[in-house]
Structures
1.
Amino acid sequence: MVKWKEVIGETFGTRMTRTCLDCIENERKHETIDSEPIKVVIESYIDLGDKLYNIRLGENNPKKLSVYKEYFEILFLRESEQFYTCEAAKFTSADLISEYIKQVAQRLTEEEHRVKSYLHSSTLGSLLFILDDVLIRNKLDLIYAGAEFLLHNDKKQDLTILFDLLSRVPGAIEKLKEIVEKHIYLTGLQVIENIAETALTDAKVYITKIIKIYNKYLFLIHECFGGERSSFIGVLNSACSKFINKNAITEASGISTEACGASIKSAELLARYSDIVLKTSDRTRINFNKALQTIDKETTKGVLNTTDKDRKHAVDLVIVRIMQHRKILSHTILVQEVTDQLRDRFLPEISLIQKRIEDLTDRGYLKRNSDDMNILEYVA
């Protein structure tokens, strides 16, 4: 072993490794190379591990891989870190976030393919740890700033990539949740302030805006944060509770979510808000009876009779129409919207609506979200 190191390892072996590393760097610079010679060198290093110990060793036995690791992997990992440190240094502004995260995602894919193509599989874990550290963990501040930019510009595809990258770093998603919650809260405040004067006399405008905000970010969560849907829905509920509790309209009318209890989900707040205002109508100028009769109303033509059978059909029709349009909706908001749209014909009991929702779910028209059973999804 000592003689091999002196004669082969420190001369010919070193030159072979240097040639391989130079080729890999060229490939990382998007030059076309012939990877077959690299594969041959790697296999020869691994075979030498067997021959030096004169026994057949398991695929991942440390002794079998000793030559490969000493004469190739150590240098390969060191130069990989240097290469990607230089590449990451070019990312200096959050405005470049879209370009950067796509590049990082591409690099991760390339390195996985590289290992599978001509290196030993045991190298992959160490290599990806270096990439995660250099390209993601060391750039978290800029990536978080970039997340705010993507949220502001509604870049859903890029947010999905960013979420996947942050998921590779333990604990990194928690800060993203804070950023998302703050963004939803500030967006909600701004939207409500923009319609404050109108909403004080027309509750339809107020409730419609709240529902629109809630659904916008519910869709975003389902599309971009699949692996953490339930926790991000909790973030959405918290943000909506905050901006409903503190905005120009609730402050002017004296209404807040505190009257309902501190832990109410935003979907429940929307349903309960009208009850609070009705009970305190002497303190506010909002006519919720009129508003709730007209908000998002779609006619159900041809349903004139009010027998139990006709009512079931009417409720089914309205539920399907709403879900075809909304795609994703909380159970509470769906019940409220069905009630509003049928109010002029008959006032459906909550229990009837709930039974029809369950029946449509059983029949495959709807399904409950796997992360949050309160969320319903339309099945196309």
Note: The longest helix spans residues 2-28.
2.
Amino acid sequence: MHDRFILLKRHIELTEMDKITLDLWTKNHPSLGTAYDLKESYFDIWECDSRQTAFLKYIEWKAKIPTELQSSFEPLTKAMKNWEEEIFAYFDHRITNAYTESLNSLIRVINRLGRGYSFEALRAKILFAEGLKKQRKPKYQRRLDSYDLRKENFPMFNTTPIGVVRESEELILLGIDFSTIKSEYPIFLDSIW
């Protein structure tokens, strides 16, 4: 059994069997239980309605970290201290830079595989290959109660989508369209190729 994954799950996502396993681990290892509770309460910070409430909840959370676990949470608390303004700005606008970070990771992979692309070539590869228009697809929510192990021991066959969370597909523009670049900036294209 992969009990480690139970510790990574949010408490609301745990099945009854997961809860029993988690309870056994936390009773035998109290510091593990404390760390799990700290993880859960840290995620609760992101449910706050305002920046001030979130900051106060973070201060309370940080004060709850016992001395023996401070070294384990040190990378997180250090990052929160270093990037406090940027992190708590999330509560002002509810926007993250996850897409940008993902794109930066993709750029690093392309650069590593390409060995020596110029900046202009890398930029063009990302703009033209990745595309500037994204179509969001509807997300489906799965039923949690279908993971009952007593149902023929095949929970994957019992899982059915129960509804669309987001019904309409959105078109998101991520930059300048290629036809605009082609007509307005032909010199840019010549310098790349």
Note: The mean pLDDT is 78.
